[in-house]
Amino acid sequence: MLATQDLQAAAVAEKLQQVLHEVDLKLLYAADLAAQFSASKHYDDQGYASPIDWIRLNCHQTSNSAADLIAVGKNLQRMPESTQAISNGEIGYAHVKAMARTANAVGNRFEEAPLLEKARENSAGKFYYICNHYRHAADRKGYEAEQVEAVENRRLWISKCEDGTVLLSGNFDPEGGAAILTKLNPLTRKSGTHDTRSREKRNADALVEVASGGGSQAQIQVTSSLETLLGLAGAPAADMEHSSVPISARTIERLACDSSIARVLLNSESTVIDVGRSKRVVSEPARRALAARDGHCRWPGCERPASWSAAHHVVHWIHGGTTDLDNLILLCHRHHRMVHEGNWQIVRGNDGQILTIPPTVTFGPPPRGPD
Fold it and tell me: What's the pLDDT band for 215 if we cut at 50, 70, 90?
């Protein structure tokens, strides 16, 4: 049975390779046609702004794919050996696309032979990277100008929804993107076998951690009533700077646990009774001692380093807990949130081991007893 399946899979693989080779040849032919079309004024006569626009709308292509077709078509005469290499199945259309873009960028400095040799040796993705090296070598100033332009085109769009959700959409140059990824990637790794978050969720959590400044939260101004700070029933939510919706008492509790908060405290008549300076709840010497003792997040299975963890009060200071080392443990931001807002409990045994207790789940009223 397995031998039969292997033979079927091999046949499918061979057919797939054959079909995609035919697609490459068709794309090469389409590129020649696209270049001829762009040289005419037919698109202008029909009221289109550019040949790319006409191809995009009438041939159901994206702007990038239309532009690529024209670029390849216009450079076919400069890449005769590469065209033959596609026919021979040695390289693909994606290789020639990168080569054509390179030819456009470097002009008369373009040489097909060395690039074709690299194309035969490398995947299309790797070859694109190699072409950028080639462009830099052939026209350093032009390449540098493109990088400067990419920095100038750096953008980040931020918008707020009615429910307080913040939407981000950005465009970053290679250097800026690398700086962001360098910060985020170490924080996007799973924090243990229990971490079932998607990659996208971990990316978002990592961005918040970076913005929060590592071990402690960024300085945030919070306006709260004393009743809210104490978590009393019936207390209103708190107001937080830059948030279009109020935040809960549990969030206030977590922020007050190990944060840099500029607080404005109100009484029941909304009169300001205290304006506190930004001050860490846990002192720096205590924080260093805690980092030396715990080393990393103490949640079982999590090894987020101390520099990216918060000092959590086992018994919160709002409820009479002290800031002594015995009442503190390190928790990464995710697990810190799980304790405060997620209602998980932490118990530390006499041997220092940590036990985590999930929140109580209620499935509805108990079954009715006999009448």
Answer: very low
Res. 49 pLDDT band, cuts 50 70 90: very high
Confidence class of residue 31 from pLDDT cuts 50, 70 and 90? Answer: very high
Q: Which of 313, 309, 280 has the alpha carbon at shortest distance from 292?
A: 309
3-state secondary structure of 114: helix
Q: Give dist(CA 97, CA 28) in Å, integer.
A: 10
Is residue 329 within a helix (H) or strand (E), and if so which, with residue range? strand 328-332
Q: What digits encode the pLDDT tens for the residues 146-172?
A: 877 888 898 999 998 988 899 999 998
> Strand 328-332 vs strand 155-160: parallel, antiparallel, or unpaired?
unpaired
The residues, any chain, with a CB within 8 Å of residue 211's CB and separated by 6 or more, are: 218
Token representation of residue 150: 């990419």
Q: Is 228:237 a contact under the CB 8 Å cutoff?
A: yes
Q: Is 234 left (phi over 0), alpha (psi -120 to 50) or beta?
A: left
Residue type, 264: V
Beta carbons of 332 and 302 less than 8 angstroms apart? yes
Tally of CB atoms within 10 A around 176: 15
Please state the pTM of the whole predicted model. Answer: 0.57
* Bridge partners of residue 355, in order along the sequence: 347
